[in-house]
Here is the input.
Amino acid sequence: MGIIYLWELKVISDAVGCSGERLWVNLLDKALHTFTQVRLLLMATWADTLERRYACVSKEGVSLQNVDRIDALLRILKRSEDDEKGRTAFFIDSANVPLMWCSSPDRLARMLKKLAGRGAAVARIHEEGLSNDVWQLLSVVADVTLCLRVSSDRTAICKSTFYTKNGKRITKVESFKVDDQCRVSCSPYMEEKAVILPEKAKADSLEEMVLPFDIGLQLSESELEAKRNVKLPYMAAQTQEGITYKFVVLLLILHELHKSISFEQRKCISESCELLIG
Here is the structure.
């Protein structure tokens, strides 16, 4: 963020858990060294609240104005066009409010560009409730966009996009901190990429999962052969010997039954057994 200078239109998009207020004020403090006038157009924050929080907003050359209607914003635009006192930097907090006033997002984009045409405009906007179409429009008309978010490890991240003089698009992702005096420090940030296993590796891991007998074992060839020859009870039940054993048990049970049932019942059971065997 260190190479981003104050010119034309900048849009700061902040998110839940990653406020852009201090970064916005940091740019405001820088603007005092560049522009003859710095005007704060407040639509979501009261002027006295900012004055209590930040000393720089009370400095000479800074004017604060609460804007609560679209016509008030239009009058400011008209006066700025007629003003010949020099370059002015406008700081808007937040652009979500005039977005609700305007009949279309294009109108808001034109208004921001007109303000930036007087010197510079820095608009803060909140990600909550902001549609992707509106953000894409603002990204096109803005000279610089700063997208803030919080990473999974609670690090504040800024993705900045801007253009060089020859039109080359530059995108940077940095972690950043803003202290109580609104001084910014930042460093390059690398996203941790999830490890994606190839399909063969996934299949191999599944095969290992269905062989719990091998978990943690380093078996030799002879040990593996011995393991394969182990006859477990549930395996024996599926062999020919196991089936024959079941049949013998069944015959013994029938023999005991024959002692206590009638001739007709024995005849019926015998016919059933012949059907099973045949």
About this structure: The radius of gyration is 39 Å. The longest strand covers residues 169-178.
